[in-house]
Task: structure prediction
Amino acid sequence: MTRAFSRSALPLLAAMLVARRAAGQQPDPRLERLDAATRPAVAALVDSARRALLPTEPLVQRALEGATKRASGDLIVAAVRRFAAELGQARDALGSTASSAELTAGAAALRAGASPTILAQLRQARREALTMPLAVLADLVASGVPVDSAAAAVLALAARARDADLVEFRRAVERDIALGAPPAAATAAAATAADLRVNAGARQQRPGRP
Amino acid sequence: MFDQSEDAVERLARHLRRAVRIDPAFDERVMRAITALPGPGRTTWLGEVWRWLKRPHQLTLTPLGGLAAAAAVAVVVVLTRMDSRPPAPPEEDSRAFQFVLVAPHATRVSLVGDFNDWDATRTPMRQTGTEALWTVVVPLVPGRYHYAFFVDDSRWLADPSAPVARDEDYGAPSSVLTVGGGGS
Result:
């Protein structure tokens, strides 16, 4: 690289980078809705997440939810801190290529009781986005389904089921539970039905096969 | 005549050989005057930078230098695009979702959630058909959202037709909506 280039272009590039970094470190204006004592603590957590390359938008939303619901500052800071930790665990389990939506759903699944191993197995099993399988897993556990049963069912379906199949599966489980079926049994029955549906759909898509 | 001119030269030489007495403050006065002059070399660093910016410069690059410059520009572009906030969703990525609440005695209902910064003023719901039915349609991109209904600026209600958010941190009820990537 010539001396002329290093004397002219490099300082400009460095200035752009510094400006970009300074702009990135500006606190999110939406955090103005938090009280003066809570705002810096939440902003620090958001900055910390940004440095760790975690998505920060879900953290901002969690803080804004607390502000709108008039939660105390301590509660808001604790919620954001916990959520950031869960996003980090989800990223560790799902890999650095996981999207923000996947990490948010993964954090919900972890809080519901799913282990990081289950998240990693789902990543292995499915090529498509994991947002829906992880969300269905979290929702099933929230509905009272034992986490092992929910994880086994979602893992079995994840490889081939479309998002719509997974939503239908979750609805079937919730419907059967509402009708009085034990959650684990409802999950097993709905998983079997969903598996049949998914396999039938796959067979129909193959040309020249009945 | 000759002797007279020799004498004059002798006297001139003697006069020139005499030591000249200068006022001791003379040097100081001269230097002060020079310092006060707005000379061309006496500018601030800002002026130097401004002059440097106005002067034409010739940029010479080796092929390797050019590649390095292109890589540096690419790094800047990538860093500029890496923003924590999700970019505005393209229209084809978002799907319209209708939220419905039956609230017979409500006078005002808002939908609040992760998709509108939990701002109760942003997504008011409208009464449709019967007075008890409140609805609103919101475009959403794939993701998992927490949301709730805010009734009469005082009551929080979860959506009875959606899963309850068990990862709720603030005590008030919330619901969960997961938007899939396609076909959901």
The longest helix of chain B spans residues 63-81. The beta strands of chain B are 95-102, 109-113, 126-127, 133-140, 143-151, 155-157, 175-179. Chain B touches chain A through 49 residues (CB under 8 Å). Residues 112 and 172 of chain B are 13 Å apart (CA to CA).
